[in-house]
Amino acid sequence: MSPRAGLTPDRLTEAAADLADEIGFENVTLAALAKRFGVKDASLYAHVRNLQDLRTRVALLAGGEMIDRIAVAVAGRAGKDALTAFAGAYRAYALERPGRYAATQTRMDQSLISGTPALRRTAEITYGMLRAYGLAEPDLTDAVRLLRATFHGYCALESAGGFGAPRDVQKSWDRAVDALHVALENWPHLPQEESTDD
Question: Which of 36, 94, 126, 167 is the most buried (most CB within 10 A)?
């Protein structure tokens, strides 16, 4: 089989995602990917437009994998059980698939990703979990941002070895999720006149 045989956008995306986990998402280049397949860089342009296109594809692949894991974890759960399962699946993916996870945190052109199945599913599951706490807009968006900032910040610090205290990181994680649950149950609702943007 020639090195070029079987090259497809999906195969290149999967290989780029694997490469991201090995060497870091920021280090994934078309040259590095071409080397993995034993082809010249130019051969890849028949399948992906450029590096940004490849990185967007990796981000969408990873986002789909991540929400699939979260969906399985939260199925049939509500309230704190759902939040704990969601948080656990999020953290596990971030720590096990660091390059893929990094891809999900990059800013992407919304015109390229709006309407994608992974994005719709992520919104449905995340907002559905939070609606069970009685939240509505704009509180839903604020709560999503709180969860994302907390989960991402914790995972980024943990993966970088940023927690030096002897306290077990799992126990701190569990307490953080407990605190988020309390915050969501006692969400400070905006006064009616402030609840919509001008």
Answer: 94
